């Protein structure tokens, strides 16, 4: 039994089809992983973080989207956004 399975009785390993999909597409979509209210909370948290930390208004990306460069480890060249560990993100990451 894996460490995650020991911690969480609801743990289900990936199916062969999911693994194949991830290896083929580089992404795995897991339906219904988060409840709608969790998604709404994450969207609000992301919007607030972008606005407060980087001056990016998700309702005006044309006018403020350039601020995303400040949030990027590669200056906007397609790297990972460096918005690590805000509470809303950690709640989703741990699925609590």
Question: Can you give a write-up of this model?
Answer:
The chain has 96 residues and is an all-alpha fold. It starts with a helix and ends with a helix. The N terminus is likely disordered.
Defining traits:
mainly alpha, 96 residues, extended, 48% helix, disordered N terminus
Give the gist of this structure.
This protein has helices at residues 3-7, 16-25, 36-54, 61-64, 87-94.
Element order: H for helix, E for strand: HHHHH
Q: Report the sheet-strand fraction.
A: under 5%
**Structure annotation, total helices:** 5
Give the uncertain stretches in residue-range form.
1-7
Mean pLDDT rating: 77
What is the makeup of the main sheet?
none
Q: Any idea what the radius of gyration is? A: 17 Å
Pairing-aware structural class of the strands and helices? mainly alpha
Task: Summarize the SSE layout with pairings.
Blueprint: H1 3-7, H2 16-25, H3 36-54, H4 61-64, H5 87-94
Helix pairs in contact: 3-5
